[in-house]
Design a protein that fits this description.
single chain; 451 residues; alpha/beta; 2 domains; 5-stranded parallel sheet; two-stranded antiparallel ribbon; 20 helices; 7 strands; 9% strand
Length: 451
Amino acid sequence: MTYTPPNNILKILHSIEFQEPLAVGDPRYVNTQAARGSQKTLKRLALKFGLMLTDGQFFPPSQKHSLFFGHRGSGKPTELRHYAQELGKPGRFFVVEVDITKQLDCNNLQFAEALMVLARSLLAELKELKLNLPQDALVELENWFAERVLNTEEAKEFTLEVKTTVAAKGDIPYLLELLAKFTSAFKSNVTYKDNLRRVIRNSFTQFAVVFNKLLETVEKRLQEEGLAQRVLFIIDGTDKMRYEDTRRFFVEDAELLLAIDTLVIYTAPLSLKYEGNLTQSLDADLMLPMIKLYDAEGKPHESGWQAMRDILLKRADESIFTNKDDISRLVEHSGGHPRDLLRLLKLCCEFAEDKQIDTESVDQAIRQLASEYRCFLEPEDYKLLAEIDRNPANIGNDERTRKLLYNLALLEYNDGSWRRSHPVIRMLQGYLLAQKSLTPTKTTEPLDPQP
């Protein structure tokens, strides 16, 4: 069936999804490799995990924890879903995709509970696959729960609830129910959360051992059935954590990550790449570049413009715009950031006075997005952004710069070799004053402050 973009304001609003990655086969998907300069990203990712895509040679490492960097909202989960289709072909990887945000509170997240979600997701996939495991495959994991968790004083109240709601079936369904109770408690029950975290941390070494044994058993069965050689976890949502939680997860708790002998890809915010204290045991050099509308010298990058237009017009039919030039204005003010382009489209629909999006609605949408950035920017931020725009080469990674990257006020292009402020910020009075105060030299003209 041929896909037709919506031409109705309400239907457009309904079709805009910020948090949900596009499934493989979704007609709204746009191939952005040329627009980003990421044609070799999948090849590099596959090689990191021991797979030669050209001929299928397969020599995976025993363990690898890889971080996939990129700006929040740049499309990492959607790209990873398409990568997973290639990586998960028969005889390669058994891919387990995990969206942390759907099962845990990403505003208060630690690796201890994230590992519970990994275990739950793996067992759910095995149940769906109907892969028969040896009868004793789950015994050690069940014993860990019984001895190290359910019998502890700290988890007494939680244990009482579990005993009244979880049937002791002694198989995958039993563990799935138990893990579901765990993740639910971590997400919504503050009383249990700290106690359970303490229990898990105190016995984490034992849990890592039994989880590694389970993974070994699962991979052996997958190989025997000719389904896959190794399990590969793709974890989304770890780039949406609070700034301080991100650092604890990947820096302070790195030894917990590395205790699990498996293959994992984590989405990670670009700002983390420049922390400088990531352990060398984490593979941390792969990133999804931003879609670029211009090159470092200011020359238009046509494939970037076309990709962003396609992203927009697959959510809203061109006929909805009274002035076709406004489509380019929305793309321009997005800075090549896919989610901000969709945010602008959403705002246009909300500001529209009639059944179409006119120029005034586009003006209001752009001003509204700019005002949202103004809420968290400080005077020193404007000064730094103006300085960077004058010399966009990547020449520093102090804490203020990393926070601007984290908050998307500063966008990074290509392989990170150059940066520019978000276009809507260049409309703000704070930026214009900061730019005016720069010492006289060659400057980059801001966008028209009155769109």
